[in-house]
Write a structure and sequence with these properties.
Layout: H1 2-13, H2 17-29, H3 34-52, H4 54-62, H5 71-74, E1 79-83, E2 87-91, E3 96-99, H6 101-117, E4 121-124, H7 135-145, E5 153-155, H8 161-172, E6 179-185, H9 189-199, E7 202-208, H10 225-246
Parallel strand pairs: 1-4, 1-6, 4-5, 6-7
Antiparallel strand pairs: 2-3
Length: about 250
């Protein structure tokens, strides 16, 4: 229930729903408060344009990105921890649930690191959608059956980044492992590092899927769905960072 409510509130704070709410509010105010109504409608269109252009979206995500550390630093870790990145539900071509595109990007880099360092892997991510298949289970399947990389530990109860951190620490600390390479998207790394360090880990960031800036030209100012998605990811991460700063760690950890 807590997970559902948190994501419901998040949906209202994030575009496009937040922009729809703002625009509808403007329309409702037009009759009795025309100036306010017009201002809200104009603001909706301006924000929609800004969030939809690549030059803003790409720069915004880049402000969050944490670069991957050098190979020499990654070689010193005790284990590699890969965070779940969502589920591709009932993938018809695979005949079952599997990792999402985001999850696949993380798994691919985790496999690459394992081949180059030989460090054991922990995958972490629960069954957020209540489909009978956890993200950790899906990542393990892809790593072992497609990348032919072994998974040493699988943490399948976490429902968010904070739980990823504390539940992973519960597993790895039993094996006296506290120094890890953390694999997630570069734009998600600031929030992930903070939580994993708070849980007790020494973290070496192993970021993947960095936003590469295109050559600036006319198309940098033309709205696109891809740019809008990047802006949404940026806003979601900012909200997540602020939320974790304002909320205490639950006693269950």
């Amino acid at each position: 229930m807590v997970w559902f409510l948190k994501n419901l509130v998040s949906a209202f704070l994030l575009p496009p729903l937040s922009l729809i709410v703002l625009g509808v509010a403007g329309i409702l105010f037009l009759k009795n408060h025309p100036m306010l109504g017009k201002s809200l409608i104009i603001s909706t269109f301006i924000l929609f344009y800004i969030l939809s252009i690549p030059i803003f979206a790409e720069r915004a995500l880049q402000t969050l990105e944490v670069p991957t550390r050098s190979n020499s630093e990654i070689n010193k870790v005790q284990a590699i921890v890969i965070l779940g990145g969502g589920t591709y539900i009932e993938a018809p071509e695979y005949g079952d649930h599997t990792v999402s595109p985001y999850g696949l990007e993380r798994v691919r880099y985790g496999a690459y690191l394992h081949r180059h360092t030989g460090k054991p892997i922990l995958v972490t991510g629960g069954d957020l959608l209540d489909i009978g298949s956890s993200e950790a289970e899906q990542m393990r399947s892809v790593l072992e059956n497609e990348f032919h990389v072994p998974v040493e530990w699988s943490e399948e109860k976490s429902r968010d980044t904070r739980e990823n951190a504390y539940n992973s620490f519960s597993v790895l600390s039993k094996n006296k492992i506290t120094h890890i390479a953390l694999v997630t998207h570069a734009w998600h790394m600031p929030r992930a590092i903070k939580e994993f360090e708070r849980a007790g880990f020494k973290v070496i960031p192993a970021s993947t899927a960095n936003v590469t800036q295109r050559n600036r030209n006319l198309f940098s100012f033309i709205p696109s769905a891809a740019a809008f998605l990047k802006s949404r990811l940026f806003i979601r991460e900012v909200i997540g960072i602020l939320w974790y700063r304002l909320t205490p760690v639950p006693n269950k950890f």
